[in-house]
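Thread: quick sanity check before group meeting

JM: Hey all, I'm pulling together slides for Thursday and realized we never actually wrote out the predicted structure for the chain we discussed last week. Dropping the sequence here so it's in one place. If anyone has concerns about the input, flag it before I start.
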Amino acid sequence: MSESTTTLRDGHAPVPPDPAEIRAERRRLIESVRALRRLLDGRRAFELADLRRLNHEARERGRAEAACAKTLQRVHERRLRRERSLARRLGGLDGKREHQERRALTVLRRESVERSLRATRLTTSEINGIGAGLIRDLAAAGIRTAADFTRVSWGKAPHGKGGEVLYIHRPHGRKVHINGIGEHRGRPLMEWRRAAVARAKARAPRELPPDQRHRIAEIIEAERARLKAEAAELPREADAAREDAVRLRTEALSRLAETAREAGRAAAERRAEFDAMAERLLALQAELAAHQDRYGDAGRRLRRAESRALRPLPAVPGPRAPEDGSGAGQGAPVSEPGTAGEPGTRVRAGLGWLLPVLLFALCSVTGVGELGEVTPPLWLRVGSRLAALATTAELLRLWVPRRRPATAAPMPPGTGTQATGVFLALAAAGMFGSSGEHGVVAAGWATAVLSALLLATGTRRRAKD
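JM (edit): ok, ran it. Output follows.
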């Protein structure tokens, strides 16, 4: 502290310092304290930002761990699915071999039957009642062998002329009508074809030739070897996928740890600056208190500034998480000051304040004293709505910031008392404006007095806070 110089008169009594010098020194100390307080006001925002940073780092580490665990789970499930699929396919190879042999035999027999039917030609000696002329007509229509038609059926004559006629169906869906072939000649024609089909099926082979059976067996064995090789490759693919997932997690955690160390060092430097400023502020407060003790009151103008300068230091927000990047407690976010679950922290304003907000909002729309037959004067209708609207806006201004996590706080003391006083004042105004009866007016005066007391009490509590 720089003290005012004193001189000696006749070498004995010190000369008291000039009051102007005392006030100037006192102002210098007060301004220094104010400047440091303004700088220290940013500490709470810094601590909250640092806590949010720690929470963000913890969430990122948790996301990296969760992503790795999810990837490992997917790798395990994919391996199980592929193992089950390969085992099912390996188990079904024997049945597949039998199925292919049956299908090949079916194809072989069908080709043999078709060859036999194409070799069975239609002649006059084969079918009774069908002469050379009809044979020529059938050949002109493309029917020369038993393979050239499948069945016969009755239908309307071509172009709708005449009654029903007999149609001969070709293999690919076409049907033809041959004049002279009716029911008596159609039935022998179909019986001839059935006999030819029966003879062809009887001559068809009933088992596969050895070369085809051997070729099917080679195909099945090659498929079996491929599936076994794929099953043997599954563990190596799963191990490689797990190693990639673990490597990605390690790289992500390393990047996060490096970023956390850098941010932690910067936060530690900033915190050290705040600590140094706090120590300097305490020293200046002690110097100011000593100056007060030595020289007493410096005047009415400085008295309030001195009391504000000597206020205790603001509390630093809650405990800080470790910043050494060691990973201790990495999975759990740090609670910010004012959040639930931390002892001694503030709580948010309750949702019950919405009730008076809605009530005053309703009054700002409907007014007071306007529900009866008597119409209140214009000044009451306008004034009541304006008062209700102003109260609604004030309650929302106080309540909304105190619901946010970053600025959570209870409502100021006396707010509820003031709101009740305003509501009773509106009720009293409605009584005065809606009726002139003596009893209603007396109740209105009583309500007005009570509302005035409540308003005065709430305003006093708000002023003290």
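AS: nice. The longest strand covers residues 151-156. Residues 1-10, 321-332, 335-345 have pLDDT under 50 and may be disordered.
JM: adding both to the slides.
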